Amino acid sequence: MDTYDIMLYVSYALVGVGAVVSILLPLIKSLDDPKSLVKVGAAIVAIAVLFFICYSISGNEVLPKFEGEPFNLTPQMSQIVGGCLYTTYVLIIVALVGIVFTEFNKAIK
């Protein structure tokens, strides 16, 4: 095993630890104020609804070259990927509109 392999596995572990800690610590902190959990729950439900809408409008077409090895893409997987892409696009647009609105609001005040 090379040094590069070891460092790659260490970086994977650190990313995993960082992801777990970034999710768990705010949840532990929010136990002091249960009303904040309602906001988090509402945000998760809103994103789930947005994904369901985007999943519903995405297509499930698969090109023949992606049906075989090494991809083995099915129509269901294609529709999930399309739903994720559409959800990402909508969230990027919402973020950009929010940034522009905030800047205009600060400029007016």
Automatic annotation (TrEMBL):
Domain of life from the UniProt record: Bacteria
UniProt KW Transmembrane keyword: yes
Segments traversing the membrane: 6-28, 40-58, 78-101
Swiss-Prot/TrEMBL keywords: Membrane, Transmembrane, Transmembrane helix
Record's protein name: Uncharacterized protein
Organism: Algoriphagus jejuensis
Lineage of origin: Bacteria, Pseudomonadati, Bacteroidota, Cytophagia, Cytophagales
